[in-house]
Design goal:
Blueprint lengths: L1 H17 L8 E2 L2 E2 H27 L11 H20 L9 H26 L10 H43 L7 H37 L1
Antiparallel strand pairs: 1-2
Helix pairs in contact: 1-2, 1-4, 1-5, 1-6, 2-3, 3-4, 5-6
């Protein structure tokens, strides 16, 4: 579950939220690169969740719910929402369909709700009677949540500033061309630089997530 929700899903959401304009005019398996990576990560996450779900039920000999800890309920809710996503995707309207924005918002809402509930469930896992986890588990998870949100903020701010600069430069080039000056082809080059910056930070985030997963599994193994 930790690998799925903390690792794979968080990277997949970042890709879908902030990288739709990256890798322009390039495809992977017949689709845009961001979508191919997003789909791969989410399918891998669902596979991890399915295996973990089965293993937990087998290990616990069925449903074993601690009434004072909502971990199991939250975990089941996140799992249901997670598996609802690919079912919804089967009925995804085309890009130009008038109902496509509705699908996009539903997909966004359900996906983020699933991850939020799952992360909360992981926090509650520490309080399970059989967990044996210490408070460092909370600390590592808290670091993950904070850094994850900071990366979202960074990518969003970077998008806003890049778009504003791009629009200003396009206007300046347009004015220069109207004035008879040769317009320089600087905007596409700067777009490539901005995309490279985003991809570098995505790589940094991926390394961070791997480190978080290693720390979490070390704590789980020591419990």
């Amino acid at each position: 579950m930790v690998t799925a929700w903390v690792g794979l899903v968080s990277i997949g959401i970042l890709l879908a939220r902030h990288f739709k304009a990256s890798w322009e005019n390039r495809t992977l398996c017949g689709v845009k690169i961001w979508f191919a990576l997003h789909r791969l990560l989410m399918l891998m996450a669902l596979a991890f969740v399915a295996v973990a779900f089965i293993v937990i039920f087998v290990h616990k000999d069925g449903w074993n719910y601690e009434t004072d800890n909502p971990h199991a309920i939250l975990g089941c809710a996140a799992t249901v929402l997670g598996f609802l996503q690919p079912i919804m995707a089967l009925f995804r309207p085309g890009p130009d369909h008038p109902k496509r924005p509705i699908f996009n918002w539903l997909h966004f809402t359900v996906g983020n709700a699933a991850q939020l509930i799952a992360v909360i469930a992981i926090f509650y896992a520490k309080k399970l009677e059989t967990s044996g986890l210490d408070d460092n588990f909370y600390a590592v998870l808290a670091v993950f949540v904070i850094v994850y949100l900071l990366f979202h903020l960074f990518f969003q701010v970077h998008t806003w500033t890049s778009e504003r600069k791009k629009n200003n430069e396009v206007k300046m080039l347009d004015l220069a061309s109207r004035g008879g000056n040769a317009a320089q082809n600087g905007v596409p080059e700067k777009n490539l630089v901005n995309q490279a910056i985003r991809q570098i930070f995505l790589g940094i985030y991926t390394i961070f997530v791997v480190a978080i997963l290693i720390a979490l599994y070390a704590l789980i193994g020591a419990a």
